[in-house]
Structures are given as structure tokens and as C-alpha cells.
Fold:
Amino acid sequence: AATRRVLRGIAFDMDGTLTVPCIDFKLMRERAGVLKGDILEVVAAMEPAAKKRALDAIWDVEQQALKDMQLMPGVHDVCEYLDSQGVPRGLITRNVKHSVDHFHTNALLARAFQPALGRECGLALQPPLRPKPHPDALLHICSLWNLPPHEVAFVGDSPKDDIVCGNRAGCWTVLLDQQGRWGPGVLQGELAPTHTIRTMAELVPLLREHFDVRPPAGASVAAGAAEGVVVQSPPSAS
Structure:
């Protein structure tokens, strides 16, 4: 039998993973004037006036989606399971913090995800945390939890943003593929997830089957992770 891999923390994408998909990304691109490329990177390179118009357009589409936000079926059970195991759960999104706050207040029926990083949350840090698919935010969370990336998993619905981010960080990756778009062998290289699920209800059975799910070593680490603060004790050299 294959060795069960130790897992001590899990981070999640928000839109389309923790919530039912409701953002009209085609409309967002049209209104922002970005039909090709990574929309956030293209907008970031715009001159100030154009950037403001594009960001305002993105904001408008995101705010409209808040009215339709619903918790993805199965997420509450995932939260209950991880909390019962003492395993920290974080959130990384290319959406804004306002949307994350709305999710925690209006959709989630459980303790908030900590840390929860919107796209602007890492801008004040040095160096700034670049948005997914860059692994910066995920590695930052691993650091906050005082965990090596190989003891952390990242769950998301986008191969190009979430799975690439997790793979670049050195974490285990789980792709939520509700529509069955990505059959075996379709995704290659950085796009290839460690595991694929069709519903969030499949996540807990998958974790039980393939991982040795444990809390971070030491109550102080778990407490620090819950508050989203840097744990001062150095990571183990092992």
C-alpha cells in the first residue's frame, strides 16, 4: 500500500470552490477591456487613468456577484471535519477583501477561514504578494502556519490559477472539476493536480483515504495559525 502523506493544513480558493460559481468573467473582461492575458497583470501594467477604469469595472462585476453568492454544497462538512482534526484552513482569492468579508458574514456557517487573503491583502508586505498563479500567498500561509509546503494542500477549481499556484509552492493540489472537463491525462505539467474531485462532498473521503491528517505540531502553532499571525518558533529542520 502507498504511504499515507502527512497533511497539517489546507488552503482554498473562494469563487467556484467555496462558493457556487456566480462571477461573469466574460462580462468582467469586456468591461475592463482585457480580452486576453491574465486580467490582473494586464490591468496592473496600465497607465493610471485606464487602470482605474478597469479596476472599477472589475469591482462592479464582483459586487453584482455578491448578491448571488451561495456556499458550495459540502463546504460546511469540510469545515467541520478540518476543525475537528485541529487542522488550519486558509483562503486565497484573486477577489477583493470586501468579497471575502461578505462570504464570511453571509454565506459561511462556520468559523472564518484564517488567514483569508484577498488580492490586495499582500500589497503592503515586502516584497508584495503577487496574485495566483504565483505561489507567494500560499507560501506566506505556509510560513504563518509554520508548516513546510509538502504538509499543506491547496484546493481550487482553476487549473491555470489554483493548481499552478499549489504546484509551484510545492503543496499537494486538489482540483474541483464539477463539469468533468479535465479527464485523466488532459492536464499536464504545472496544470496537473495531485487529485481531482467532482464535488466538495468528495474532499473529506479523499483526505481520509490518501492522507494522514494531523494538526500542526504544538498548540502554539495551531493558535497562531487560527489568528493568522507569524509563529515565532523556527520550523523543524527535519
